[in-house]
Specification:
The complex is a heterodimer. By secondary structure, chain A is mainly α. Helices cover 27% and strands 6% of the residues of chain A. The model of chain B is unreliable at 18-31 (pLDDT under 50). Classes of the chains: A mainly alpha, B alpha+beta. Chain B: It is found in: Cell envelope.
Chain lengths: 372, 302
């Protein structure tokens, strides 16, 4: 009796979960016509558009969410010369991080979970609908597109094992494949560019600062890079052949590259980023522990904040401001005054004593005692 | 006198010529190519082809031609020189450099294009060639007399002759795997083996539609042209490429079928026993003129 009850509970739970997905699906920001051909799709007749779909929707996943290793044996036949490929899915997913992500291979993926090639590509090559390649073609096209570029190799043996080769068990190979990792890419700290100009010849790009200090995601700049950015058989176009506009595209996403050349181009080495030097606002006093995003809320943009304290902190009064935080505990007399009695600018800099005292001056005389 | 007879002679010969020409236009009007709407074809996407040359191997096996083992086809040094299909290899893959240096090379498979209006078929004086309903241009060894007109006529220079054979040499060319495969609804051997499906077998109409869709979706990947859609009146094999076809050694061809005028004249002349009739008419004409001449001379003598 208990068992039955448990099963009923599980089933109802799953049904509820399914319903939940459907509700979400309905409210997704999608037009029905993106996926369905008819106006009112039903469960019985969903009238789904065949893939590939013109408008593609992809849901980004992390590499860890996908399977580690896949054995691609959908097309396995007894007569095959080659063994099925043991595909290091996670390794490839990680590598695609800076390229196009999941959608590099899982193109035209409908919303929801990521689907495999076999869901859309037919197994039989002799087919009616030839608008998309068959499964064998689809697999190979995906692989070869990159593999050809970085290794220049098209031999079957670069991915497949010979069927006659029985040295290692399949299980062992799968285990071996899970251990395969891409050599860790050490991001350079500084990248130096030499330009053909006579003056301001060098551009020292503070690479590390861009992702460590400014927390710019790698993909923001490295978004369309396949393996052959580093591994290539056929040499890439040298920078000298690129147009000025092309060379500056990555920088001009954030920087003004048209009128302000000296920002990046100079004859000397660049100093590390200094907020006071660059903007005139010293963050070392009170703001040094904050991340950039704490003040520069808009992602990836670091320009033009008003340096008045009230921009971020609101209006300070004698009641809501704990003066000891700045390292000076006000004495009882001074605690009674409004902030503006002493601090006459909006930045609450050096106070004036002249309003009340003729013979006193800050910092020689202090309106309280110093605290740590 | 002499002038008179010459004019007569010219008159007769003009008559004969115009008669022949008249017949020509007649034979041109009655087109004998009945092309099936469902005829098949193959779309070659040269941007997908990886140059593994498995198609070359499969073709040789399917046609009982001697071949090296399959793993020797990995040798890419063959691409150093451009090859042509011959009597020992009915299809070959050639490699061309890509315009963008960071891209892989372009591989192009070459074989008989299986024209909708085949020049070889028109040139063949014994009817050894036939265009089948499924699009195949097929050569029949039992009819061939070895004149090699087909080799001259082909705009793609495909038919090859077994020069090395002293006895009963054959014309060799891609036969669309007609007898053993496509006639039975199976795939051609090369299409079946291609690992990347750079060559797609299907209804010619569907292939053109698919090719157009590809060009529309990836305008940077392809030049806006399907080679074989209109060339020499259309071919069963169609090509897509990322580079001008002429730079990939495709011949520069017009839209008119290659047989064109020559075929009309040839077939016109050979039809309705024109040559013997014309010959006898000519001889008769000369006789008649001479006879007239003689009788006039006799009259004058009298």
């Amino acid at each position: 009796m208990k068992k039955i009850l448990l099963i009923v509970i599980i089933i109802s739970f799953q049904l509820l979960a399914q319903n939940k997905i459907n509700v979400n699906h309905k409210y997704q920001e999608l037009k029905c016509s993106t996926c369905h051909t008819c106006e009112i799709p039903t469960k019985e007749k969903p009238c789904l558009i065949d893939c590939p779909r013109d408008k593609m929707i992809t849901i980004e996943h992390k590499a860890e969410e996908g399977p580690v290793v896949l054995t691609i044996d959908r097309l396995k036949k007894q007569t095959d010369i080659y063994k099925p490929v043991i595909f290091t899915h996670r390794l490839h997913a990680e590598m695609s991080d800076m390229a196009g992500g999941c959608k590099m291979c899982h193109h035209y993926n409908p919303p929801g979970k990521v689907i495999g090639c076999k869901e859309c590509h037919e197994i039989d090559r002799n087919r009616i609908d030839i608008s998309k390649p068959d499964l064998k073609g689809a697999y190979h096209q995906q692989c070869m597109n990159c593999h050809r570029q970085w290794s220049g190799k098209v031999e079957c043996l670069s991915c497949h094992d010979l069927n006659a080769n029985q040295k290692k068990s399949e299980k062992q190979k799968e285990i071996d494949a899970t251990k395969k990792v891409h050599k860790k890419v050490e991001p350079p700290k500084i990248i130096k560019f030499e330009t053909p100009k006579s003056s301001s010849k060098f551009v020292e790009f503070l690479h590390e600062e861009h992702f460590n200090l400014f927390s710019i995601e790698c993909q923001k700049c490295h978004s369309n890079e396949s393996c052959n950015k580093c591994h290539y058989k056929f040499k890439p176009v040298p920078a000298s052949q690129k147009s000025t506009l092309e060379k500056h595209t990555k920088c001009s996403n954030c920087h003004d590259t048209k009128s302000n050349c000296t920002m990046c181009h100079s004859n000397n080495a660049k100093n590390a980023f200094n907020h006071l030097e660059r903007t005139g606002f010293d963050i070392n006093k009170f703001h040094s522990k904050l991340t950039c995003q704490r003040c520069h809320v808009e992602k990836g943009k670091f320009i033009g904040l008003n340096s008045d304290c009230s921009t971020c902190h609101g209006i300070w009064t004698k009641d809501n401001f704990k003066h000891s935080l700045v390292g000076l505990q006000l004495d009882e007399t001074h605690l009674e005054f409004d902030c503006t009695e002493c601090h006459q600018n909006k930045k609450f800099e050096k106070p004036t004593c002249k309003n009340c005292h003729d013979d006193k001056e800050f910092p020689k005389d202090k309106p309280g005692k110093l605290v740590k | 006198m002499l002038n008179q007879s010459r004019r007569d002679f010219l008159k007769t010969s003009t008559l004969i010529t115009s008669a022949t020409l008249g017949l020509n236009s007649k034979s041109k009007a009655a087109s004998k190519y009945v092309l099936s709407e469902d005829r098949m074809g193959v779309l070659v996407d040269t941007t997908v082809c990886i140059g593994c040359r498995k198609c070359e191997w499969a073709c040789k096996v399917a046609h009982n031609l001697p071949t090296e083992p399959i793993d020797t086809y990995d040798d890419r040094s063959v691409f150093k020189e451009k090859r042509r299909p011959n009597d020992k290899a009915l299809t070959v893959v050639n490699e061309y450099p890509n315009d963008f240096t960071d891209k892989f090379p372009i591989d192009v498979k070459v074989q008989c294009m299986h024209c909708d209006k085949p020049a070889c078929l028109s040139a063949c004086i014994v009817g050894a060639f036939s265009k089948h309903e499924n699009g195949a241009v097929f050569w029949d060894s039992t009819k061939c007399i070895g004149c090699r007109y087909c080799m001259v006529a082909c705009p793609f220079q495909i038919p090859a002759f077994e020069f090395e054979k002293a006895l009963k040499p054959d014309i060799k060319k891609c036969d669309f795997c007609y007898k053993d495969r496509t006639f039975k609804g199976k795939l051609p051997a090369c299409v079946e083996i291609c690992p990347v499906e750079a060559i797609t077998y299907g209804r010619r109409e569907d292939l053109i539609k698919a090719a157009r869709e590809k060009i529309k979706m990836y305008p940077n990947r392809y030049v806006n042209r399907i080679f074989g859609e209109y060339e020499v009146g259309g071919t069963s094999w169609l090509y897509l490429a990322s580079k001008d076809f002429e730079k990939l050694d495709f011949p520069k061809l017009g839209k008119d079928p290659a047989p064109g005028v020559s075929e009309a004249i040839q077939h016109g002349i050979f039809a309705y026993f024109v040559p013997p009739v014309a010959l006898y008419a000519l001889l008769g004409g000369i006789m008649w003129i001479n006879k007239n001449k003689k009788s006039k001379e006799q009259e004058q003598d009298k």
